[in-house]
Design a protein that fits this description.
Strand content: under 5%
Helix content: 55-70%
Largest sheet: none
Radius of gyration: 24 Å
Number of helices: 6
Shape: elongated
Order of helices and strands: HHHHHH
Amino acid sequence: MKTARQHDEMSDAQKRRLGATCEYIDKLLCEIEQILDEEPSKSPFPRYIPDVTLAQTRVLEDHIRRIRGQLLRALAREKIVREPPANSATHAILTRLEFIDNAIEELKPRHMRGYGSLSEVAAEKLNGTVNEFRSAVQSMGRYLRQEPEAIAEPRENAPEQASLKIARTKAQ
């Protein structure tokens, strides 16, 4: 049975809208943080010219923290409880690795021939590139699928160590 809401309360639909908008604002704030954090060395394909100074970055990060505080206070005022995340980070990463693998598959010579003829030498080189990409992506997936307790290497050595373990396992 529905209870009458007071004149100063929002309807459930309005509360859902406020919650969804706050979540969207936070998503955009996350994107701004990623832009501020983008360093040319992280990606060979930077999307932005790094023209924000360190001082500007610090001030913008302070603004972002304040805006997030405002979002949380607005939700609390309206007694809007956000659901905790339902998606596993591991699952999300593995899904993206599958998308990467699909993109790599489309680089195979049989797919590239749709863009014009491909010599045997070019096809061999392309197959080598595809195999190299695929090996790296598959290595990431295998590493991530391990039980967390089994991963004891320091983070910076993890890719090399995981590759060595895989190579040793294959050799046995």
